[in-house]
Structures are given as C-alpha cells and as structure tokens.
C-alpha cells in the first residue's frame, strides 16, 4: 500500500527535510511540495492526498485556515515550532502534529500510524461490502461470513468465534483488532471478553444478551452502548 503525501511549508529547509525523510520510507510517495497554502489549495481539492504535512504559521492563508477547506478524508499533520498550537490543531480535526525541528523517528511514527489507519479502514469497508472476513485458524485462513457470527469470546491471546450453526472457530487475534474490523453498531462489545452480533439477539436485559439458549454478559463499561442500540430499536 502506498501513502500519498503532500508538504506545505513556507520555509524551504523545513520542507526539504520532510522530503528527505519521505524518500527513506518505502511506502510514502510525495505528490507535491508547496511553499504557499494558497498555491496548494486547488491541487489538494482536486487531487486529495492521504496525508498532508502542513505548517501552521504561513502568510496569506494559515495552515489552520487551509485545514478547514480541505476534503474531510485528508489526514492533516500540523508541523509547528510552538506546542500551544497542538490543541488548536485537534479542534480542526488534525490527525497529529509534529514539533519542529521534526526528527525522522517522529516522521516515521506518524506515517506508520496513518498507514495502519488506512489499512484498517480499507479492511472495514471490505468487510461491510463483502460480508465476510478471513481469520487464521490451525495454520489456515478460514472464511467467516458476518451473518453467521453469533458472538465472539476473548480468551487471552485467542478468540473463539461462535457461529449460528453451532460451530466454533479459534483464532490467534486480539479482541481490539477484531472489534476495529467488524462493522458497528451491528457488532458491539458487551463485555471485556465478548463482542455480540446485535442483529441476531433474541432477548436482552441489563445483565446479559441472549441468542436462543446461549447468553453473553453485559458489563457496566459497555452497558450504555448496548442499551442505546436496544432503545433505538424499541417501539414505545
């Protein structure tokens, strides 16, 4: 997977530094480097990038102002010499911010974070559209249809996927990764150790979710999400 990036900074040396870092990261491709936010704006609207390294303090149009005008899917990383701008950056939906002078380690960390986020989002879209996932089980990749999953139980480093036909699939994957992959609110965490397929439940109370003759617990930490889903589907 390639991470397409652009750089905007009115300081040539700062922009060149980020360009040099990008050349050392195999999955990063810089599509454009600009010394003015105004010059970059039209290009970025017509040809959005995955990640934009954006200086905050610039003449004519600041980085903050430009960020509000960009496509929503653009992940903006503000580059600034002033820590106090970090909070302002998050207010306009910044993906992250880097403090100048930017180190290669910090640059690499933010690109890896963006790549992981993109990968997760693509996997989520694929799961939603195709209605199945592959999980590793006994040295094989097993195809699991989302519609067949009743619930998932976390067991230390493994998970156990309980299917509607009674089968159980053990897989070496953590619950957090699986929770990120499965579409919400169709699948909701009901407990630290359980993810429930909400469209297949038969009854529910404040302590457990029932799938015919099987139940999974509801803990206090996840009760609000579960009950909110139930309330949205309850006739008054």
Helices and strands in order:
Layout: E1 3-8, H1 12-23, E2 28-34, H2 37-46, E3 51-55, H3 63-67, E4 75-80, H4 85-91, E5 96-99, H5 104-130, E6 132-137, E7 140-145, E8 149-155, E9 158-163, E10 168-171, H6 175-181, E11 187-191, E12 194-197, E13 203-204, E14 208-211, E15 214-217, H7 220-232
Parallel strand pairs: 1-2, 1-3, 3-4, 4-5
Antiparallel strand pairs: 6-7, 8-9, 8-12, 9-10, 11-12, 13-14, 14-15
Instruction: Return the string of H and E elements.
Output: EHEHEHEHEHEEEEEHEEEEEH
The N- to C-terminal Cα distance equals: 48 Å
The count of DSSP E runs of length 2 or more, i.e. the number of strands, is: 15
Mean pLDDT: 90
Task: Provide the helix percentage.
Answer: 25-40%
Main sheet summary: 5 strands, parallel
User: Segments where pLDDT lies below 50 for 5+ residues?
Assistant: none
Range of strand content: 25-35%
Question: Spatial order of the strands in the main sheet?
Answer: 2-1-3-4-5
Number of helices: 7
Radius of gyration: 22 Å
Helix- and strand-based class? Answer: alpha/beta
Inertia-based shape: elongated
């Amino acid at each position: 997977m390639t991470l397409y990036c652009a750089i905007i900074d009115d300081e040539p040396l700062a922009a060149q530094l980020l360009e040099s870092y990008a050349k050392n990261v195999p999955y990063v491709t810089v599509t454009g480097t600009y010394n003015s936010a105004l010059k970059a704006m039209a290009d970025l609207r017509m040809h959005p990038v995955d990640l934009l390294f954006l200086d905050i303090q610039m003449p004519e149009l600041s980085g903050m102002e430009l960020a509000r005008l960009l496509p929503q899917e653009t992940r903006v990383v503000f580059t600034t010499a002033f820590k106090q701008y970090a909070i302002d950056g998050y207010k306009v939906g910044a993906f992250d911010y880097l403090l100048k002078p930017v180190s290669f380690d910090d640059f690499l960390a933010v690109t890896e974070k963006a790549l992981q986020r993109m990968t997760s989002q693509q996997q989520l879209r694929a799961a939603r559209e195709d209605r199945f996932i592959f999980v590793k089980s006994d040295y094989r990749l097993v195809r699991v249809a989302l519609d067949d999953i009743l619930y998932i139980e976390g067991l230390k480093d493994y998970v156990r996927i309980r299917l509607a036909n009674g089968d159980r699939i053990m897989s070496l994957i953590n619950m957090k990764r699986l929770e990120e992959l499965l579409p919400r609110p169709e699948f909701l965490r009901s407990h630290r150790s359980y993810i429930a397929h909400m469209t297949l439940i038969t009854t529910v109370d404040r302590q457990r979710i029932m799938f015919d003759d099987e139940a999974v617990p509801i803990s206090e930490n996840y009760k609000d999400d579960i009950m909110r889903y139930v309330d949205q589907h309850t006739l008054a």
